[in-house]
Amino acid sequence: MALLTKTLVSWNQPRRFREQMRQREKRVLNWWAKPVFGLGLASIFLLQWYAATLKDGPQKPPPFEQTLVVAICGGIILAYGTFWLAQILLDSVAVNDRGFQRG
């Protein structure tokens, strides 16, 4: 099994095609998908905070109110930022020894 793959063909997707893909994703994706994804990430942050409160030691985690605000804001920013970055960064396609690769 080779660690490095040989790229056979590589190209960038045209702007018009990317716009059509964005429009299709908007039609297919429910309006509540991104906020639910953000709240899911926030719940993971809060579980990590809870695990930190179980540990005895000199370092204490921040208070719950502060953690809740940071978790919700961070989760929403990560949720919307992930979709936004995927639209911007995934515009090239490469065909290599193992198959297709976007990125």
Features:
103 residues, 3-stranded antiparallel sheet, alpha+beta
Walk me through the topology.
Elements: E1 7-12, H1 15-28, H2 33-53, H3 64-89, E2 92-96, E3 99-102
Antiparallel strand pairs: 1-2, 2-3
Helix pairs in contact: 2-3
Shape descriptor reads elongated
Give the helix level as a range of percent: 55-70%
* Residue fraction in strands: 5-15%
Low-pLDDT residue spans = none
Q: What is the terminal-to-terminal distance?
A: 22 Å
Q: In terms of quaternary structure, what is this?
A: single chain
Integer tally of domains: 1
Mean pLDDT: 88
Strand order across the biggest sheet?
1-2-3
Number of helices in the DSSP assignment: 3
Question: How much is the radius of gyration in Å?
Answer: 20 Å
The ordered H/E elements are: EHHHEE
Structural class: alpha+beta
Largest sheet: 3 strands, antiparallel
Report the strand count: 3
